Amino acid sequence: MAETGRQEVVKIITEIVATVTNMHLYPPTHPQVAPLVDRVYQSITALLEASPELTLIIVDEDIVFYGKPLPGVGPAGKALIKLLAKKGIERITLLKGLPKEQLFGFLNDLASGDVKTVASRSCIKVGKVSFDGELDGEADDFTEFRNTIIADLKALYYGIRSGKKFAIDEVKHIVSQFIENFTRSMNPLSLLASLKSEDEYTYVHATNVALLAMSLAEYLGFSGKPLENIGVAALLHDVGKMVIPDEILNKPGALDAEERTVMETHPLMGLQYLTQQADVPSLALIAAMEHHLKYDGSGYPHISDSWRPNIVSQMVSVADVFDALRSKRPYRGPVEQDKIISILRHESGKALNPELVEHFITMIEQ
Ligand SMILES: [Fe+2]
Ligand SMILES: [Fe+2]
Hints:
By secondary structure, the chain is α+β, with helices and mostly antiparallel strands. It has 15 helices and six strands.
């Protein structure tokens, strides 16, 4: 990166410090805050247009950028070093494609006295500097752990397809590991996986829905066995998709009426499959069957006019809709978080339980 980039970085540091200072003084929704976030977001995106990433490393009293200390960062530089030291951060990497809400959440974490450890996000990596210069942070450990879960789940789903015995113990093990590895201080959104290839969608989606549904359940006060069962139910909600042909499952476009009918059999297929397995919690059977049944009783499969989905199926539905929208699909890009929130609110009382929607939004915006 050219020397001119260094001036830009100094400007960004000054803007970050100003924004965090204001976030500390005012509530995050205060009109004073938004324009400051917009300004720093614009400066960062402009810089990331020229370079795929921006890494700052703190070495003693210096902020190092591309191997050299930044000159002339002055009081803003000192203030940033202090802010980061409080959270134990020695290194920040911002990546191209950084969404504004991620930057907002990160700056908010820096400003908040309640947040002890700031989690990495998909486009903001934070951590300590180890001797080999690699990142060493809590959230990165989680990323690695989560990726092994996705691989396990993929193996499990393939096993189901090839008629191998279903390993419920493995599913329960995955869930208990999730419960052990995530802490309430992490915003669940920072833990979600992104798709690397389209055929991974089912596993990545199942993992994300489980993380979101468990976070919501924990947020609502569930713990112990019920929380574990909710995790199992969420992880297996789409298990019926394993009998849907790949051409329909991974079709790079909207489904036609006939394909849609096949696709819509997956809740009952899931129920049928899980009913035949031993030791599956009944909540998993219920959620597999009901997760496309809407709060107002519409949706599929139609059971009876008066039938309403179980509260756990309703939690899975909120997580399901959220993750489906935030994921990039062959026929559309990922939906922005603000837009997803307005969709959730629009569906509140119709497809989704209004109280769960509000709790979910509060949880992800904290
Ligand atoms: Fe589904
Ligand atoms: Fe789903």
